[in-house]
Recover the amino acids of this structure.
């Protein structure tokens, strides 16, 4: 049973380019969360999605950032016109849909974005 | 400010010793969880304790929760070099059913062989 798969593991972009980060949740998981981690910091919540729906995007910057979780395929976190401050590790997590199991989130290995 | 704040920020111990890490939070919670992160890796879930529980064990891990003080502790007994990692507490606040976790900044644990 594969865990949460994120790709790419490392992504280098120049300022102004677009970054696309992909996340495939664990099998049987219908909830996806994206977090951002700056060096020496904890994870900061960005967005929570279920299939085809954004449930909570209170942690997402209002501009340049978007996320989707289509009916088929992985969840995508998209950052347009990247700036140096977007450099960070971006983690995806997934959870089951019911009861207490929903509270346990399983994390991918992360995508480390470097903006030159 | 962070919902969960751990202390100490860094802890260095000898293999075989016990490691105690603390976490404080601000708002009412559904549950509190501890995660571990090895350098350059994702987070691994260690243990979840519900708001109506006071203590929980899992192998060499012991977690306590004091909701009156809004604090939790994670004890790792008989530490091993492989326990070297960053440890984060995460709270799942009572604000709906969204299970949005709020993480502290983490504690860096170093276990010397």
């Amino acid at each position: 049973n594969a865990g949460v798969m994120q790709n790419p593991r490392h992504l280098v972009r120049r300022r102004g380019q677009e970054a696309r980060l992909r996340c495939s949740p664990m099998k049987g998981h219908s909830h996806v969360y994206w977090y951002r981690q700056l060096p020496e910091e904890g994870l900061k919540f960005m967005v929570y999605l279920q299939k085809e729906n954004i449930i909570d995007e209170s942690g997402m910057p209002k501009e340049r950032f978007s996320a989707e979780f289509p009916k088929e395929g992985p969840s995508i976190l998209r950052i347009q016109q990247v700036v140096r401050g977007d450099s960070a590790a971006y983690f995806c997590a997934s959870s089951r849909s019911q009861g207490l199991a929903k509270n346990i989130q399983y994390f991918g290995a992360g995508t480390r974005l470097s903006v030159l | 400010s962070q919902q969960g704040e751990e202390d100490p920020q860094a802890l260095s111990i000898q293999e075989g010793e016990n490691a105690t890490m603390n976490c404080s939070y601000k708002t009412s919670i559904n549950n509190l969880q501890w995660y571990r992160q090895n350098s350059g890796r994702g987070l691994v879930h260690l243990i979840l304790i519900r708001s109506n529980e006071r203590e929980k064990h899992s192998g060499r891990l012991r977690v306590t929760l004091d909701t009156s003080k809004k604090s939790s502790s994670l004890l790792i007994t008989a530490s091993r070099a492989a326990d070297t990692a960053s440890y984060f507490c995460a709270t799942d606040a009572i604000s709906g059913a969204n299970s949005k976790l709020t993480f502290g900044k983490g504690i860096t644990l170093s276990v010397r062989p």
